[in-house]
Amino acid sequence: MSDREPVGGFDLVVRSRRVVLPDGERPLSVAVRDGVVAALMPYDEPVTAAEQVDLGGLCLLPGLVDTHVHVNEPGRTEWEGFATATRAAAAGGVTTIVDMPLNSLPPTVDVEALEVKRAAAAGQCAVDVGFWGGAIPGNAAALRPLHEAGVYGFKCFLSPSGVEEFPPLDADGLLEAMSEVAAFDGLMVVHAEDPGLLTDPAGPTYPQFLDSRPGEAERRAVERVIGVARATGARAHILHVSSASCLEPLEAAQRDGVRITAETCPHYLTLTAEQVRGPEYKCCPPIRDGANRDELWLGLAAGVLSCVVSDHSPSTPDLKVPDFAAAWGGISSLQLGLPAVWTEARSRGYELARVVEWMSGRPAALAGLRAKGGIAVGRDADLVAFDDTARFTVEATALHHRNPVTPYHGRALTGVVRATWLRGRPVTDTVPPFGELL
């Protein structure tokens, strides 16, 4: 340590020789006061603080931001709930989630339903939680009030959602909703599959299910959203891109100045159709082949796909029946996104800073969460100690989400979250939840 006079007055100082910033890793001391990052100082800077933690060679990351989580509470809390979902998030290094408007009852399609959801979440959340609103047929007049009540944007489907209380928008409905959203510069996030190209699976197997939801259905729907975004000037974001055929129209639209972005998910980047063993792998749109996966990585590296988020969409085990045509479609991965993506990314030569940008910085920017998404003075002190070389084998029953179902069970992954801080306070199983509703 230096003989310089110590800087003082901090609540917490976390030191690491590998603090992950957008431009790479640096040895730093991260000083926290009143829940925010107050200073970034040299690793060996003498300080006085109520608590000091030295991680040595462990990485220090900003808390991840997952803008695509189906919590399902209230109404389908046996599938998932705020207590279990947010605990899983914290264990996986995710310090902020944004909850999707469907699969809960009522769905978040008006201010009254938003208040019901906020009341259900209150006091249960181990991490900070924001909310999407929903755009369904007939609720265009409810979108501005929801925006003013604090939702981060609006989710819609172009094909059936799987739950009857959240129907899809047809062409006229999409135009109406996006015109309304454009009027207050909101954000529309879209499940993009063209229902005209979807069919009932011809049988119970995964290849038959995959054939029923071709990549062309995604591309056609993406092209429709691009056209409406171009016509209205609205901001649009394509959810969970699984088909690399979407990359070409997205790149062209972005080059033309259309306000459109897109995401993909850990399961599309790390799993392949050839690996599918059972219904725990079923999701919509589906996991495709290995060559398609390689193209998604290239689209992510090029910035056509801006972020990686979980689309955590769990259910009770009984809904994951062996028949792929009948099984519930949803992947449970909230706690595993970081190690799953990092395992694959490092094998492809990507640095940890890229992964952090895809899973923290860019999702935060998408939702306009200015206090999240990076380790910087003035931002929330959401921090994660990450052992980037530790290996483990996934055991579904050891995960914190409500039901022990995940396609990652038995899979060897690299990267272990050793500690998580939310606004400078450690999140542990023994600390009552103190996450805020954003």
Automatic annotation (TrEMBL):
Entries under Pfam families matching the protein: Amidohydro_1
Keywords: Hydrolase, Metal-binding, Zinc
Lineage of source species: Bacteria, Bacillati, Actinomycetota, Actinomycetes, Streptosporangiales
UniProt-listed Enzyme Commission number(s): 3.5.2.5
Superkingdom of this protein's organism: Bacteria
Name by which UniProt lists this protein: allantoinase
Native source organism of the sequence: Sphaerisporangium flaviroseum
Pathway(s) annotated for this protein in UniProt: Nitrogen metabolism; (S)-allantoin degradation; allantoate from (S)-allantoin: step 1/1
SUPFAM superfamilies per UniProt: Composite domain of metallo-dependent hydrolases, Metallo-dependent hydrolases
Family: Belongs to the metallo-dependent hydrolases superfamily. Allantoinase family.
Keyword Zinc: yes
Entry-linked InterPro entries: Allantoinase, Amidohydro-rel, DHOase/Allantoinase_Hydrolase, Metal-dep_hydrolase_composite, Metal_Hydrolase
Assembly: Homotetramer.
Entry keyword Membrane: no
Ranges where the Amidohydrolase-related domain occurs: 60-427
Cofactor(s) listed in the protein's UniProt record: Zn(2+)
Gene: allB
